[in-house]
Amino acid sequence: MKKRYLVLENGSVYEGEAFGAETDVMAELVFNTGMSGYQESITDLSYRGEMIVFTYPLIGNYGVNRDDFESLRPAASAIVVHEIARRPSNWRKMMSLAEWAERTGMPGITGVDTRALTRELRDQGAMKAALVDEITDDVYAKLHDFETPTDLVAEATTKTQYQNPTDGVSIALIDFGLKNSILRSLAKRGVNVMVFPADVSAETVLAANPDGILLSNGPGNPEDAAYAIPTIQALQEVLPLMGICLGHQLFALSNGAQTYKLKFGHRGFNHAVRHLAHDRLDFTSQNHGYAVDRDSLATTNLEVTHEEINDLTVEGLRLKNHHAFSVQFHPDAAPGPHDAEYLFDDFLNMIAESQKETTQHA
């Protein structure tokens, strides 16, 4: 196998062997602690613009299958593993992860001491990195000048409106980098889903006559998608609303809160979250590098509903004066535990309650 090098902006270098596409790439380097679910992670559009380090030592052991894609192509810029599986085995397997990476043009590096690399990212924070065939002074110069793109949502969102039709409750879903598993979770509940681009206007959404609004997950800094704030503000006034991941952060910004970048983020499928009102613990799937600033909530109508038990970051919010809430984690649980899937049912119940109130006041 061909030698490759992972070069970090702090000067650290990790040597390994290439697999997948043999193109050079620069991106933000982050780590994921999941023991499985690599296919869902790599195709999760929330990872757009990021290079993933998998902390689990063997990646690709059950190959790639047709059912577990969160988007059609790799969302991650590259992946870094300790060992890429040479003989994957699973009854659903279509091909190996290495074969799929080569076909889809995603670079990878194997043979890396991912334990040491993860410790470095944990101690120093997520940082820029380059995956290259040879180390030159030019690599360091380019890495120093590299800036994470600010149009990641524009790249990830759908370009056209589309529908996943049923005869059930109708939800307008604003796509900031939608995971397919959210659509599957809604379809399982018989929901009629109308998907809109990230820059859609409130007037366009309301013209479709939905019963509720869902703000999807997505990549990058929520402030880069601030153009969605007026739409969210207008929609939450008239319809029940739920936000997930980036949708949670944009919901917070739309109501006067602030966000900040975490040192190394939450990326994995075993994050324990406390539901404050019910004193309930859920293990959740998470993938985010930004969080809502708890101190900024004091002057808003938002209240915290969920918090991460390890670092106490804000994991859920509720608007006191409207039928609207959001969560930082992924209740669709793909991959990950299904503890929080009930939140989709809570949203549908909220829509039913809102419709009942409207009927009573008519």
**SS elements, strand count:** 19
- SS-derived structural category: alpha/beta
Helix-strand topology string: EEEHEEEEHEHEHHEEHEHEHEHEEEEEH
Helix content: 10-25%
The residue-averaged pLDDT reads 95
User: Could you say how many structural domains there are in total?
Assistant: 2
Biggest sheet, spatial arrangement of strands: 10-12-11-13-14-19-18-17-15-16
Domain Carbamoyl-phosphate synthase small subunit N-terminal: 2-132
Binding site for L-glutamine: 46, 218, 220, 246, 249, 287, 289-290
Subunit structure: Composed of two chains; the small (or glutamine) chain promotes the hydrolysis of glutamine to ammonia, which is used by the large (or ammonia) chain to synthesize carbamoyl phosphate. Tetramer of heterodimers (alpha,beta)4.
Organism: Leuconostoc holzapfelii
Topology:
Elements: E1 3-8, E2 13-20, E3 25-32, H1 38-42, E4 50-54, E5 58-59, E6 78-80, E7 83-84, H2 97-104, E8 107-110, H3 114-124, E9 127-132, H4 137-145, H5 152-156, E10 162-164, E11 170-174, H6 180-188, E12 192-196, H7 202-207, E13 212-215, H8 229-236, E14 241-244, H9 246-254, E15 259-275, E16 280-292, E17 302-308, E18 314-319, E19 324-327, H10 342-361
Parallel strand pairs: 3-4, 4-6, 5-7, 6-8, 11-12, 11-13, 13-14, 14-19
Antiparallel strand pairs: 1-2, 1-9, 2-8, 3-9, 10-12, 15-16, 15-17, 17-18, 18-19
Helix pairs in contact: 8-9
How does this model look, in words?
The structure is a single chain. This protein starts with a strand and ends with a helix. Strand 3, helix 1 and strand 4 (50-54) form a beta-alpha-beta unit. The protein is built from 10 helices and 19 strands. Helices cover 25% and strands 31% of the residues. The longest helix has 20 residues, at 342-361. The chain is globular and about 70 Å long. The protein has 2 domains: 3-148, Carbamoyl-phosphate synthase small subunit, N-terminal domain (Glucose Oxidase, domain 1, 3-Layer(bba) Sandwich); 152-361, Rossmann fold (3-Layer(aba) Sandwich), CATH 3.40.50. It has helices at residues 38-42, 97-104, 114-124, 137-145, 152-156, 180-188, 202-207, 229-236, 246-254, 342-361; strands at 3-8, 13-20, 25-32, 50-54, 58-59, 78-80, 83-84, 107-110, 127-132, 162-164, 170-174, 192-196, 212-215, 241-244, 259-275, 280-292, 302-308, 314-319, 324-327. With 362 residues, it is an alpha/beta fold. The mean pLDDT is 95. The strands form 3 sheets. Strands 10-12-11-13-14-19-18-17-15-16 form a 10-stranded mixed sheet, sandwiched between helices. Strands 1-2-8-6-4-3-9 form a 7-stranded mixed beta barrel. It has a two-stranded parallel sheet with strand order 5-7.
